[in-house]
Amino acid sequence: MTEDESVAGWLSGRLPDDWFTEAPEVTVDRDEVLVVGRLEAVEGGQEAEAGRIARFREDTRETRMQIAREAEHRYGRKVAWGAVCGDTRQVFTSLSVPVMTRLRQAERRVLDTLVDAGVARSRSDALVWAVRLVGRHTEEWLEQLRTAMADVERVRAAGPDV
């Protein structure tokens, strides 16, 4: 079992049964666990969906914080929450983690062009914009890579302890 599966399994056993209409989407990285669940649909469009999400956020705050503290202690990562209702998705809290990188002039010029064109406010924002663009256009390939990495982790875990 991979660590991602372990976290998702623990959360599925820990979350109240009446919160979500299906198993929540659990995304794990080195710094954070993101739990996003689907809420019961409402009539009234995006405003009603946003209201339903806001109500869920307020009504479950204390329990979510308690579960997050337990998970943070158990897995050594912060826990962020979100909800989906109809076509509306909202993440309540999520880490913004600094990432150090070294760029050569050609790469810096790409970022500077985005800043100069008003696409981004800073090099940091330009880098976020570029990462999101790459992610959006290569999501299928990235998902295949993540699956392959999870398979490798599963095989390692099944091997002998040395």
Helix-strand blueprint:
Layout: H1 3-14, E1 25-28, E2 32-38, H2 45-75, E3 78-85, E4 88-91, H3 105-116, H4 123-137, H5 139-158
Parallel strand pairs: 2-3
Antiparallel strand pairs: 1-2, 3-4
Instruction: Choose one word for the global shape.
Output: globular
Spatial ordering of strands, largest sheet:
1-2-3-4
Please indicate the percent range of residues in DSSP E strands (runs of 2 or more). Answer: 5-15%
List the secondary-structure elements in sequence, H or E: HEEHEEHHH
Cα distance spanning the termini:
18 Å
> How many distinct folded domains?
2
Largest β sheet strand count, sense and barrel closure:
4 strands, mixed
From the alpha carbons, calculate the radius of gyration and give it in angstroms.
19 Å
Q: From the helix content, strand content and strand pairing, which structural class follows?
A: alpha+beta
Q: Would you count the extended β strands for me?
A: 4
Level of helix content? 55-70%
Mean pLDDT: 92
The number of helical segments is: 5
Give the low-pLDDT segments.
none
